[in-house]
Amino acid sequence: xxxxxxxxxxxxxxxxxxxxxxxxxxxxxxxxxxxxxxxxxxxxxxxxxxxxxxxxxxxxxxxxxxxxxxxxxxxxxxxxxxxxxxxxxxxxxxxxxxxxxxxxxxxxxxxxxxxxxxxxxxxxxxxxxxxxxxxxxxxxxxxxxxxxxxxxxxxxxxxxxxxxxxxxxxxxxxxxxxxxxxxxxxxxxxxxxxxxxxxxxxxxxxxxxxxxxxxxxxxxxxxxxxxxxxxxxxx
Amino acid sequence: xxxxxxxxxxxxxxxxxxxxxxxxxxxxxxxxxxxxxxxxxxxxxxxxxxxxxxxxxxxxxxxxxxxxxxxxxxxxxxxxxxxxxxxxxxxxxxxxxxxxxxxxxxxxxxxxxxxxxxxxxxxxxxxxxxxxxxxxxxxxxxxxxxxxxxxxxxxxxxxxxxxxxxxxxxxxxxxxxxxxxxxxxxxxxxxxxxxxxxxxxxxxxxxxxxxxxxxxxxxxxxxxxxxxxxxxxxxxxxxxxxxxxxx
Lengths: 235, 247
Prior knowledge:
The complex is a heterodimer of chains A (about 240) and B (about 250).
Chain A: H1 16-42, H2 48-60, H3 70-100, H4 115-118, H5 120-138, H6 153-161, H7 166-193, H8 200-229
Chain B: E1 3-9, E2 18-24, H1 33-46, E3 69-70, E4 73-74, E5 95-99, E6 108-110, E7 113-114, H2 117-124, H3 146-155, H4 163-167, H5 174-185, H6 194-208, H7 218-222, H8 230-244
Parallel strand pairs in B: 1-5
Antiparallel strand pairs in B: 1-2, 3-4, 3-5, 6-7
Helix pairs in contact in B: 2-6, 3-5, 5-6, 5-8, 6-8
């Protein structure tokens, strides 16, 4: 790959940093989405009717100006595009990183990097698999692992995590741990990639933001499966 | 002190290399790491073996010529260059693994020596300011704010040793790039070419085959000149501005 020539006809938009900017921007869209999603999930603590009303309201949001589920589809299209950009840039950068060191070290110590920063790629793959299952279970396929009805969002939620389905709740809790890890480094990394951390103080603030985003989102999401497993959220 | 050294031996750029083990006795804790290798080489030559090839020049921590991945850390366990690392940082009976910098843009030339001319080409492709030479300009005609001048000076201490690339799991040279971009971009003399510079230097970096940055921070921890991670943020910010300006 290395040659002795200098590159001509340079475009800044074709650089690895442009790919990183695309990753950071799409990542921020995901952060905003999961915050919204987490807020919706917490409606489960207000009971069956509040939760289902919220679910129905998502479909009537913006009507009559928008068709039914119109706003939902706008969000979905933005998320699908973000996913393509996020995963596409990750794959391109992952390939580059592997090619940049084809001979590995016999001994390599990690001195400064956090566990979350070193697990971004495989953690990201895990999250992608989780998102696919999650969509099959609650959106596209509507699978009720307890065998009950699937047309009642609140009951589907309780059936998915309570009683003998507790193991599914554990899978979700593990996925939220992965999400927390991904957000912990991802938030800091996005700030750094967007060029917002040009001093030691702003870098420290970005690290704190990583902790806050990770704990609030992963923690907030975990409350619903946890409280369903232990029978607080019931039908 | 007595040591066991595991050293990467490779006859030339095209040959396959392997780790070789050498016992070494009579090492003083006051020796520098390179003097310890000199001692090994004297013994190897006495026994009619090929000495271990490694880079060094000033041996006072300012030139950036020495390298070496020592027990999995660039320049070894202390925040300094390998020439300024002393054997008192190790203990009697230690096994020390010594490898060359590992990055495809830094191909191994022989044993522990790598070709770091990729860095030179990054500098060639924009890492300078254009100025008319001739009589020296009046020193006070271009005022530089003190905080900016200090930041530029601090990151201009980068000696281009490549420890950041060696320590980075992605084989990225972003800390090196960031140091040069910040150093030139903070000063008034660097302004006219600021955004064309960042796009050509980044393009050369990518062309050489260095990886992308994941902001994990191993580079800044390995840097013997303690260049902070915020230069990478500056690099990203300047490239973002370059995109906006159509470079």
